[in-house]
Design brief:
Blueprint (H helix, E strand, L loop, with lengths): L34 H14 L4 E4 L4 E10 L2 E9 L7 E5 L2 E10 L4 E3 L5 H12 L3 E8 L4 E6 H14 L3 E3 H7 L1 E3 L9 H9 L1
Parallel strand pairs: 5-7
Antiparallel strand pairs: 1-4, 2-3, 4-5, 6-9, 7-8, 8-10
Amino acid sequence: MIRYPNGKLYSPVHQGNTPANKKLPINYSNRGMTLEEDLNATNDYYLTHGIAVIHKKPTPVQIVKVDYPKRSAAVIKEAYFKQASTTDYNGVYKGKYIDFEAKETKNKTSFPLQNFHEHQIQHMEQILKQNGICFVILMFTTFQEIYLLDASHLLPLWDNVQKEGRKSIPKKEIEEKGHLIEVGYHPRIDYMKTVDKLYF
């Protein structure tokens, strides 16, 4: 016997002509989370457990036009990016400044360079010059594989690809230079284990 918190009995719901005791096919379409959602949940875990303080940077936006259909609600109708954003996340871990970008692709054999922007690469170079910890987290969604690639490895790959006129970084190079992050339950993407091995 199952009861709701209010004390009422639970009774199975009949869906159409389907008997209550017959199992329905499970829909997995919305089961997975995006890389950003997983990282945000992981960073919340780090913050709650006093491990690290890492936040997603807000994107600077200039609001131009707002519509007020009701007195209690406002709808943004027109807005522009104030400036080019740098990387997605930054914060502090064990007294060191951490800065990183997170990207994902459905491509199976390479990581498209269009996912990166010149100003992001320049920003990473500046972080490295100041002895900050800087990296990218790359996800191949088809394989559910997530790699941490240090910026010091990404920058030469970026330069080589630009010189050779290629439009992507081969997955093989990311596998060789990067570090596979094990996906768990709580936290979902425990990238700090890899950070510990690489930088501490």
